[in-house]
Amino acid sequence: MSHTAHIPSHRKPRRNASKTALRAGVAGGVLSTIAVAGAAGPAQAEPVTQTIEMPTITSGLSTAVAASAQATQQVAQDLQTQAQEDAAAATAAKAAKKAKAEAVRKAEAKKKAEAAAKAKAEAAERASRSTARTTLSATSGSTAGTAASTSSASSSSSSSSATGSAAAIVAFAQAQVGDAYVPGGTGPNSWDCSGLVQAAFRSINVDLPRVSQSQSTVGTQVSLSNLQPGDILYWGSAGSAYHVGIYVGNGQFVGAQNSSTGVVQRPLSYDPPSGAVRVL
């Protein structure tokens, strides 16, 4: 046995190469850091000056301002348009009001003119009949009293000269003498001319047209020299007559003349008719 067999070796064990390299690298890095820090330590750091450019907003602001200006202009235009429309509406309303007032004025003037013309026509009719009565009285001369007596007798006997249906018509017409004349009146206490004639014939169940124009063409045309009680007298032309009455005999007729006289019985000479028709 060798005398050195139990003596441990003083040689250091071999290290792994990769570990050695790693340690060397770390140490080198540490040393480098220390060296840099040492070199930079004593020196004073200079202040750093840097210019930062802010983003420009000029273009966006211009767009916003332009949009605002456009909106303001549009509002102004809208207000101007509305003002013009309001002014036009006010002008139209004023014109319409003026036109309506003018139409009302003209209507009232026309109504007054018609009323005046009607009054004038009635006055002329009364004057004409008054003249006729005056002329008749003058031509009678000294026989006026006798004529009055004859007229009275004729009036009282006129009903007796009619018979049958004609007598009923005459009686109905004479019963209305003194009633009022009203345009469009059909009784029982106020009449117009054709309304009275129609009612008289209706009393014997004979239906006649309502207006004088049509009544002047019913039945048969007869001569004024051949009248009979119950005949219809008309003034104007047949088919366009403006007035009608009923012949009651003995040269007398009954008619609703006008608003001044009402329903009267008068001699034919009071208002000579234009023609006559016979229905019965």
Notes on the structure:
- The protein is of the alpha+beta class and 280 residues long.
- It folds into 2 domains: 73-157, no CATH class; 162-278, Alpha-Beta Complex (endopeptidase fold (from Nostoc punctiforme)), CATH 3.90.1720.
- It has 6 helices and 8 strands.
- It has helices at 17-40, 58-140, 144-157, 164-175, 193-202, 212-215, and strands at 180-181, 190-191, 220-222, 232-235, 243-249, 252-258, 262-267, 275-278.
- It has a 6-stranded antiparallel β-sheet.
- The longest helix has 83 residues, at 58-140.
- 17% of the residues are buried.
- The model is unreliable at 33-39 and 132-160 (pLDDT under 50).
The CATH superfamily of the largest domain is known as endopeptidase domain like (from Nostoc punctiforme)
Q: What's the alpha carbon Rg, rounded to whole Å?
A: 65 Å
What's the helix-strand series? HHHHEEHHEEEEEE
Class from secondary-structure proportions: alpha+beta
CATH architecture of the largest domain: Alpha-Beta Complex
Low-confidence stretches: 33-39, 132-160
> Beta-sheet strand percentage?
5-15%
State the helical fraction: 40-55%
The figure for the number of domains is 2
